């Protein structure tokens, strides 16, 4: 049906059948069904409920199972940032997330001479020497509404590290602030807090809600958790969908999960083959000679 034809349709109350341009009381959930007033809406609710819930669930799944945009590129080498935290370093001096390959690379002055002093590879600001200075930089970035700094500060409060006094309350406060600014991993941390009751009461429904927000925002760890939930419930098709999206974003745990599902005959050979290809594509996008050198320099780093 064309847009012009849709505009020519006369609105009809789903309950009493009344027609007219004043039929504009719309179902709050699906935004599809119209009524002439609140009374008709209430009367029709029991008939519309199932259809409404199915429609809303369908729309939710469309959004939930979209492949999120890839992580940002490193601002220095312009290659896709690795998914693991060990593959990049946040610089509180300029608020940039630098890949570990560029962080490992030597720094040069404006004349092209290599300098011994440890500086940020992006803005050339000297790295903080004492803990107090590092903490002050994080707090400054938080005041600037830097979502990554808020998330990092939340992690420091959560763990009681980097000079921050351990506090789940302050950690969650910063996680919520970061999540509101689009920091997906912060939403995942909130979900985890609700799942185990750390700083809040256990609430599996809220945990799942925040995991979904995180997954849709591009957090592959949260996506993997959603896959586990569906797998445990016996919803293998939905679990595989989650795992495949996570694999494309670089989550190796999801690759192993699909491998196990294939072994147990809950996933097809095609599913497993597709997953391997997705993971290889991810590896190709993040690989660089400088990152390989960094990995050799410190075997504790794992970029893939």
Q: In summary, what is this structure?
A:
By secondary structure, this protein is mainly alpha-helical. Helix content is 55%, strand content 4%. A two-stranded antiparallel ribbon has the order 1-2. Strands 3-4 form a two-stranded antiparallel sheet.
CATH superfamily of the largest domain: Tetratricopeptide repeat domain
CATH topology category name of the largest domain: Serine Threonine Protein Phosphatase 5, Tetratricopeptide repeat
Please count the beta strands (DSSP E, at least 2 residues each): 4
Figure out the total of helices.
Answer: 13
Explain what this protein looks like in three dimensions.
It is globular, with a radius of gyration of 25 Å. It starts with a helix and ends in a 7-residue tail after the last helix. The strands form two sheets. A two-stranded antiparallel ribbon has the order 1-2. It contains 13 helices and four strands. By secondary structure, the protein is mostly helical. It has helices at 3-8, 38-64, 100-104, 131-143, 147-159, 168-180, 184-196, 204-216, 220-232, 236-248, 252-263, 269-286, 289-297, and strands at 25-26, 34-35, 88-91, 96-99. The chain has four domains: 3-49, no CATH class; 72-127, no CATH class; 139-218, Serine Threonine Protein Phosphatase 5, Tetratricopeptide repeat (Alpha Horseshoe); 234-296, no CATH class. 33% of the residues are buried.
């Amino acid at each position: 049906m064309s847009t012009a034809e849709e505009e020519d349709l006369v609105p009809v109350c789903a309950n009493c059948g009344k027609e007219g341009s004043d039929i504009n009381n719309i179902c709050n959930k699906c935004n599809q069904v119209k009524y002439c007033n609140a009374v008709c809406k209430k009367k029709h609710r029991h008939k519309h409920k199932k259809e409404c819930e199915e429609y809303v669930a369908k729309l939710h799944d469309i959004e939930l199972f979209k492949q999120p945009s890839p992580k940002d590129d490193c601002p220095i080498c312009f290659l896709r940032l690795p998914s693991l935290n060990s593959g990049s370093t946040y610089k509180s001096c300029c608020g940039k997330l630098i890949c570990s390959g560029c962080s490992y690379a030597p720094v040069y002055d404006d004349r092209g001479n290599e300098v011994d002093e440890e500086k940020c590879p992006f803005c050339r600001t000297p790295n903080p020497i004492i803990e107090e200075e590092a903490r002050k930089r994080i707090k400054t970035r938080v005041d600037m509404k830097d979502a990554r700094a808020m998330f990092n500060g939340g992690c420091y409060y959560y763990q009681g590290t980097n000079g921050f006094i351990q506090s789940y309350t302050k950690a969650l406060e910063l996680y919520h602030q970061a999540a509101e600014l689009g920091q997906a991993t912060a939403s995942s941390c909130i979900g985890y807090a609700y799942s185990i009751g750390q700083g809040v009461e256990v609430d599996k429904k809220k945990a799942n809600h925040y995991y979904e927000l995180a997954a849709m925002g591009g957090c592959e760890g949260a996506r993997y958790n959603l896959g586990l939930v569906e797998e445990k419930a016996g919803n293998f098709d939905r679990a595989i969908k989650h795992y495949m999206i996570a694999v494309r974003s670089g989550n190796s745990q999801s690759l192993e999960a699909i491998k196990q599902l294939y072994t147990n005959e809950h996933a097809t050979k095609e599913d497993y083959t597709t997953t391997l290809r997705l993971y290889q594509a991810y590896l190709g996008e993040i690989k660089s000679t400088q990152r390989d050198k960094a990995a050799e320099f410190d075997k504790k780093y794992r970029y893939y």
